[in-house]
Amino acid sequence: MNHGDHGGHGGMDHGDGGMDMGKMCSMNMIWNTQIEDTCVVFDWWHIRSTAGFVASFFVIVALGVLYEWLRVAARDVDRLIARRLVAEGKGKARIRSGRATPDSDSEAAGLLGGERALRKVGTPLPLLPRVSRAVLYGAQVFLSFFLMLVFMTYNAYLILAVVVGAATGHFVFGSHFDINAALAAATDSKGMSCH
């Protein structure tokens, strides 16, 4: 099998004067364990050797760990913003009981009170916290889609790298557990979804 053949185009003369352009990236659309001539998302991330593949494996593991760190960092920034807003008297820290009331549940208040469904709920955020939250969210979305594209190489080893990175990051950054939040079903159970 010619791994440099992109759907029958590998042997075409592209007017390069007969210059050997080297091996090309293999584009597998099925489960594979290919090591050499694998490209990771970009054509410049062309793995040409076993050592390059091992290095790429660990870079992808690090990206998975980074994704988990970003999730925790975003949650921590939200907590920090909430504490500052409460300290400035701009927000109320409410503890909900088991049942929602029209006063405490914005959806029920809108439905029962006849208010418009598109009203904004919560405390308005100043510009800097909004920018911080948006940057962290954008980084999470970018990295989650990037890792999805790595997964879509269908390379078993690269898929393993994504999973090992996510699990390692979850282990490292998930060392504390909020029992009350878990029992109230308020924990972030999103996991490593695209965003």
Automatic annotation (TrEMBL):
The chain crosses the membrane at residues 51-70. Keywords: Copper, Copper transport, Ion transport, Membrane, Transmembrane, Transmembrane helix, Transport. Its main location: membrane. It is a multi-pass membrane protein. The keyword Cell cycle does not apply. It comes from the Eukaryota. It is found in: Membrane. Belongs to the copper transporter (Ctr) (TC 1.A.56) family. SLC31A subfamily. This is Copper transport protein.
